[in-house]
Amino acid sequence: MSQSKNIPEKVTVIGLGLMGATLARLLINQGYSVTVWNRTAEKSEQLVREGAILASSAAEAISASPFVVVCVYDYKATNEILNSEEAVSALNGKTIIQLTTGSPQEARETEIWAREQGADYVDGAILAAPNQMGKPDTIILVSGAEKAFQKSEKVLKILGGKITNLGGEIGSASAMDLAILSYTYGAALGFFHGARISESENIPVDSFGALVADFSPTIGEFLKYESNVIRKEDYTASESPIRISVEAVERILQTAQESGINTEFPIFAAGIFRQAKAAGYENEELAALIKVFRRQANAETVKGGKNA
Ligand code: NAP
Predict the structure, then answer these.
(1) Cα of 125 to ligand 1 centre, how many Å?
(2) Rounded to whole angstroms, what are the CA distances from 269 to 187, 253, 276?
(3) Alpha helices in 83-167 (DSSP H)
(4) 209 burial class (0-12, 13-18, 19+ CB within 10 angstroms)?
(5) I want to staple 132 with a disulfide (CB 3.0 to 4.6 A). Which of 40, 90, 124, 128 is the partner?
(6) Closest CA to ligand 1's atom 44
(7) Domain match, 211 and 120 both
(8) Any residues with Cβ below 6 Å from ligand 1, and which?
(9) 261 lies in some domain
(10) What are phi and psi of 97, to 5 degrees?
């Protein structure tokens, strides 16, 4: 870090849960002067031994530094902490780096509120567990006004080596976080069904887990390719036509029925692929599945809207 005349730069961290305490520690270890505040003050004790300064109130913590990193349970907690008369009066001229998980709408509302208090606001989403923070490949998604991002970048880079700036629309970091979580939970559901296939065939589940880890970079590259197909809107089969997946998913369902294991996941997946087949996408690239998802959303929300 750059320090002028050996005076450490100041950062405040509000929220000392598993993640917030990790963020504070990383900053202390890089020589920052870190002021901390947590609703339950006892959680600061170890950090104070490591060099943190404990503020007696959130307002005092905000006053102590130009940067205020917030990492609490949710936006409701954020509001309870920042939206008191004393805290608000300390916010003018500060840069809030919000690393609490939230929705795009919550980020939009908080940015407007922060501006009203005279504060800059960067919204971030952490794509890592506490023990993975501060590494060269730790991803933190950020969005917000360029001026706020530029000011915060140095602090953010201590927390994660791969700061991914998604631009000025403040909701983008939360939106991309949710998109990644959607992918993660979708994959996790498939994983647990796969674990049941392994169990029912007496294959050790940890062998399956190891295979999943080996296969993950390949599927990641494949899905990246499919995202480019969607972007170009050219669904000519080029790598994997939908008909192959229609058969594969029917086989997963059939095997679950034959083995007497839970069929919920393959029934859901087969339902989507059957819709793609019925819509005539069978011979198109797998990415054409997006048209089924677009249609479902339209059917539910926009009567007579643009379909696939
Ligand atoms: P945590 O260990 O459960 O800590 C929650 C923090 O929020 C504590 O500091 C808690 O204070 C505070 N808090 C909760 N309700 C509050 C309220 N009403 N008023 C004031 N403070 C309140 O959670 P965490 O793991 O640190 O996660 C913090 C954020 O990081 C979450 O938004 C989470 O989604 C995000 N995140 C976490 C991970 C992870 O793996 N842990 C990964 C990515 C993102 P007390 O100590 O007083 O209860």
Answers:
(1) 13
(2) 12, 9, 11
(3) 85-90, 104-116, 146-159
(4) middle
(5) 128
(6) 126
(7) no
(8) 15-20, 38-40, 43, 71-74, 77, 80-81, 100-101, 126, 129-130
(9) yes
(10) -110, 100
Distances in whole angstroms, Cα of residue 106 to Cα of each of 79, 152, 170, 174, 183? 10, 20, 10, 9, 22
- Tens digit of each residue's pLDDT (9 = 90 or more) over 90-99: 999 999 999 9
Q: What are the tens digits of pLDDT across the range 11-58?
A: 999 999 999 999 999 999 999 999 999 999 999 999 999 999 999 999
What rounded mean pLDDT belongs to the chain?
Answer: 94
Average pLDDT over residues 162-166: 98
Residue nearest to atom 4 of ligand 1 (CA): 17
One-letter amino acid for residue 82 of the chain? L
Quick one: 96 and 155 in the same domain? yes
Task: Work out the pLDDT band at 263, boundaries 50, 70, 90.
Answer: very high
Q: What was the pLDDT predicted at 261? A: 98
Q: The whole model's pTM is what?
A: 0.89
Question: Distance, CA 251 to ligand 1 centroid (Å)?
Answer: 42
Q: Does residue 109 sit within a domain?
A: yes
Residue where a domain terminates, one of 168, 195, 218: 168
Same domain, 73 and 145: yes
Taking the centre of ligand 1 as the mean of its atom positions, its distance from the CA of residue 71, in whole angstroms, is 6
Domain count, the chain: 2
- Quick check: is 28 in a domain? yes
Which atom of ligand 1 sits closest to the CA of residue 20?
26
Q: How far is the CA of 77 from the centre of ligand 1 (A)?
A: 9
CATH of the domain at 240: 1.10.1040.10
Q: What is the pLDDT of residue 8?
A: 76
Domain that holds residue 280: 204-307
Tell me, in angstroms, the distance from the centre of ligand 1 to residue 53's CA.
Answer: 20
Ligand 1 pocket, mutate which of 23, 73, 135 (most atoms under 8 A from CB): 73
At residue 118's C-alpha, the angle toward residues 113 and 122, to 5°, is 65
- Kindly state whether residue 98 falls inside one of the protein's structural domains: yes
Do 208 and 114 sit in the same domain of this protein?
A: no
Answer yes or no: is pLDDT of 160 > 50.
Answer: yes
213-229: average pLDDT = 98
